Amino acid sequence: MKDQSLANRLDAINEYEQEKIPAKQQKGWKSFIGMYAGEHTAGTEFVIGPLFVVHGVAAGDLFLGLLLGNILAVLSWTFICAPIATSVRLTLYWKLRKILGPYLLLIYNVINALMFCFLAGSMIAVSATAVGIPFDIQMPALNDWLPSTFGWVVAVFAVGSVITVIAILGYEQVSRFANVTAPWMILVFIAAGIAVLPQLGVTGFDNFWQVANDTIWTGVPLAGQSKFSMWHVMFFAWFANMAMHIGMADMSILRYAKKWQMGLSSATGMFLGHYVAWVAAGILYSVVLVQSIPAGVTLIDYISGATADQLPSVAPGPLAFNAVGLAGAMCVIIAGWTTANPTIYRAGLAFQAIAPTSKRWKVTLITGLITTVAACFPALVMKLLDFVALYGLILMPMGAIIFIDFWLFPKLGIDTDYAEKRNKLFNLSAFLTWVLTLLACFGLNRLYGLELFFLGLPGWFIASILYIILSKVLYSKFKKSKTAVTQ
Questions:
Q1: Taking residues 442-470, what's their average pLDDT?
Q2: Which of 89, 97, 157, 367 has the fewest CB atoms within 10 Å of its CB?
Q3: pTM summary value
């Protein structure tokens, strides 16, 4: 009799972690349009949108910066990540193994998986802010780092358990879940933003822009927060998912695509999620902010003079519930799920690449536990802008290495897939490129004051140039030593 135990059924799920995706498993536009819309119309948008208000972005700077940045993000997915993903049809980790060798890949995978765990943890925390509403759980404040109450921890673990189960079931279930929920979530975001506009004094299109400048995106940061410009918004919108497109993490997703043009599917996530949802979430926070102003105090005086404890929390659950009630709270919960699911899936693949003989579902289960524990710490949400920029920067050099290896090395006469072809356990040129690039970015930050949001662009070019030079030098040295031994 065939064994139908749960463990055996989970073992039978094949995600092709160590081989190319066969043609019969490749997917069409629908899978990716839904997946990107679901992943990037997320619970975290309820945090990022308000943080632009917190950092004093002006209305014109916000709308222009989001337009330019999201276009650049879509182009990065389409022309940098997707062509390589559909050509090699391997996960990021198995492609890197061919280039880096198993020892350097081990280091990368640990760091990469932990970064994804922390990112997914922020999404679990977002959902937990809505789960905690009916139980009157105290929500984290803007500057909180540690768990505030035991009830908060319980809510986080409840959400984390559900998300982990869906991620264990594989990409098919992740994509299906996103396709079902994405349209509804987008409508709730839009409805919530529109519903609260009258509370801010908007009576129609004719006075929206005036209210937007005077009351929502005033250009004045909250007390103790840095001032953001259009450039901050543009580069954040572009590099919020730097690890996914320029860093090549979405090779693991786009390897399923029938053709590279499906990288354009990311536009659904960028413009419905990272544009519409960020704008809507900023409006929701402005309503709570206005409602918190003491009598006789102007908005500008309040936001520039209040202490952190006096300012309203950016916890997404209460913000959405305040706007559209139960539908808003449910949207936050599900939005967190649809984003955390593919992120835990990616992290599970990274950990599984470390221990390739382990079953993917077991590794994903452990990954979900790590992620859920991380989600208990609200700093992942409250400092989300900085964290997203940092994790993308750390992983970016490896994406540049893959790009150079795939496109330029064949033209330069340098071996592609160096570690595999040369039977190397450790690619020294890739390691030095990674370390020196991050040191160079740190130097640009410390010596020239270049902020975290802007470091990805020069960092990518630094990594690309370094990898070409180091590989050329070390490869020539290897050929000379090999020739000397032969003679």
A1: 95
A2: 157
A3: 0.85
